[in-house]
Amino acid sequence: MTYDIAAIRSHFPALAAGIAHFDGPGGTQTPEPVIRAIADAMAQPLSNRGQVTLGERNAEALVTGARRAMADLLGASPSGIVFGRSATQLTYDVARTLAKTWSPGDEVVVTRLDHDANIRPWVQSGATVRWAEFDPETGELTVDAIRSVLSERTRLVAVTAASNLIGTRPDIPAIARAAHEVGALVHVDGVHHTAHALVDVGALGADFFVCSPYKFLGPHHGVLAARPELLETLHPDKLLPSTDAVPERFELGTLPYEFLAGTTAAVDFLAERLDREATGTRRERLSAGYAALEVHERVLRAQIDEGLAALDGVTVHSRAADRTPTVLLTFENHSTADAYGFLAERGVQAPAGAFYAIEASRHLGLGDTGGLRVGLAPYNDSADVDRLLTGLTDFLKR
Length: 398
Description:
Elements: H1 5-9, E1 20-21, H2 32-43, H3 54-74, E2 81-84, H4 87-99, E3 107-111, H5 120-123, E4 128-132, H6 143-147, E5 154-160, H7 172-181, E6 185-189, H8 201-204, E7 208-211, E8 222-226, H9 228-232, H10 257-273, H11 282-309, E9 314-316, E10 326-331, H12 336-345, E11 348-349, E12 352-353, H13 358-363, E13 371-375, H14 382-396
Parallel strand pairs: 1-11, 3-4, 3-5, 5-6, 6-7
Antiparallel strand pairs: 2-8, 7-8, 9-10, 10-13, 12-13
């Protein structure tokens, strides 16, 4: 296992600006191979998908290639990969489609830990809503918290694989087993999780899994993974002339072919660059690469944790035993918005807010303001962490 951080950083043109980026949870910077793949796709003939003209064949190859790449990344079937404008849009589409099959009194379970994109679509679906709470002291969301709100009327459990606010990673396989025991489906928000751990949707027990390539070095759009046989049972609203084939019946309008090229390139970057000695299939190389990334991020997270522990007046709200390298901070007698600005002036980007995890922020007692979020990405190094800790030290001395 090798993780050559200098070589990895060399592929990111944005890093030449000299900024230490801790804003990865909101979207990562883009490596040159992804940028080039997008440009190359737009430089060749493109048209609607088909097999007659060169433009049609190019478009078909880009879509097929992206489905295979995302299937390898998520441990899914290519025919169960759906592309959309965003994970939020895809979740709304699934919620509206499922809601048409539900009856009055049917229930959905949502959690206080989740991003609002995996809460509001279900709250607005018309089903009866049951809330699962996480422990604000530990940041933990347990399977017992989910089980306590399940019933024979539960039709779906919506839960995050990792909190984008405080990093908590619940035990999704156990939660999925509990949901399936009462006949409920499980919709997993994997947007934050997919950036930090190799996903296996089958092992997780997720019936639906959504993620966003721009959180793992790719372009801005959303991806949904589900079993093809489950998608066959669902009938979303669509245009009359559009195909009824799966997964295309869930994809509205013409797909962003150039972004799909970028997504394939992002998956290949993760497979080829994180562990340059990895061999085997793309899935096997992804597994090795993510293992190397997790070791790298664990070392940097320990450096952050130790540095924060030495600072007075800092409260760390990321406390779960299993969490991503994402830390939410607040300060005694100092505004997190001021800290955000202070760090930005010194070339350290760590934003402040609730980041659409409004229920989690309120449950932590932080209202709608949230905190300062520090998150790692594959290109962060020890020097970045030193700059962050120095900046926070100087800020707290003001």
